[in-house]
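For concreteness, we quote verbatim a single protein encoded this way:
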Amino acid sequence: MENPQFGIRDPRRLIRPLVRRLRPYVPGEQPKIKGLIKLNTNENPYPPSPRVLAAVRAAIDGRLRLYPNPTAQLLREKLARLHCCRPENIVVGNGSDELLAMAVRAFVEPRAGQESRQPRAGRTPAFRPSKSLVQFFTPSYSLYPVLAEIHGAAINAAPLGADFSIPSLASLREARQWDFRAALTFVTTPNAPSGRGYSTAQLEELCCAQKGVVVLDEAYVDFARENALALALNYPHVLVARTFSKGYSLCSQRVGYLVGHPGLIGALQKIRDSYNVNGLGQVAALATLDDLPRYRANFRKIIATRERLGRELEALGFQVFPSQTNFILVRPPGFSARNWLQKLRDRKILVRWFSDPHVRGYLRITVGTPDEAAALVKAAKEFL
């Protein structure tokens, strides 16, 4: 309702034009449906360990009135021992998403007064000044372009191969689809939404060719054959992002971290929000690191279920891409992926479908428990 005292007809005009144009990140659906088999957001199907739950319960006392440790110092020290580095090599965030946003703010110059736009599909991008460029492969994590647009950065999204492989350096140079001077490059490894893993050797080759900061986003690395942590400790312009959400069943607590050179980490500490990681999240993450054998057993169970689910869906005519994550990407037979989404939802089985042209013909299916996987396969058999 208009207030004559102020004479403001439309408060939207008070919003920055950049924000008005912004297309927000769309997270996976979080419905409240009784009896739902939820296989759409890559959550771990197994709960936190009893040791973690006990630690969190014990911390629910008068300490809740106090601010948490501002730098998550105890957690950084424990992570440093795990990764054979120093606390100065680690910054902890409110999930790895906050840290990705911090990287954009710390390493990329906004393009003052100009729009950030992705090049049209199939066209060679006209590269913007490299100091303002955020680049990544596509399809990958759909938060990257949102973070760049919020910051007013230029964007370059280079296509992965048809099998979701990273193109060779020679082909990237030849196609002129990549800027080796970009201020910030994100690489999701293993890739999402395809699940494809990349070798450390290939990632190292790419990192060595880049002049700006490279963030290797290893959200799903606990289910992969290789990790690239050594690159973050050996190369001063490389950061590795990790999270306690996917492998360690702490989505609700929002704890992630970056590993890298103290120079880069120190810059991120400067722009980090004060008290950015809640106290119970720090307690839960610390207790998780005290019970790693239990979680590694869960990783093995999830991987075994993933492989079995993939074989059973292939036998039904699904195209299943090899995965090194806790989900699989499939092209379903018979009818469109969007129709499959609705048919499964009608059976109270929720999977993920993306409207992005690169993957709109596919479904992404989180690896749940063996019983949940069996329910999915049973429903698919009945549909076919």
Summary: The radius of gyration is 22 Å.
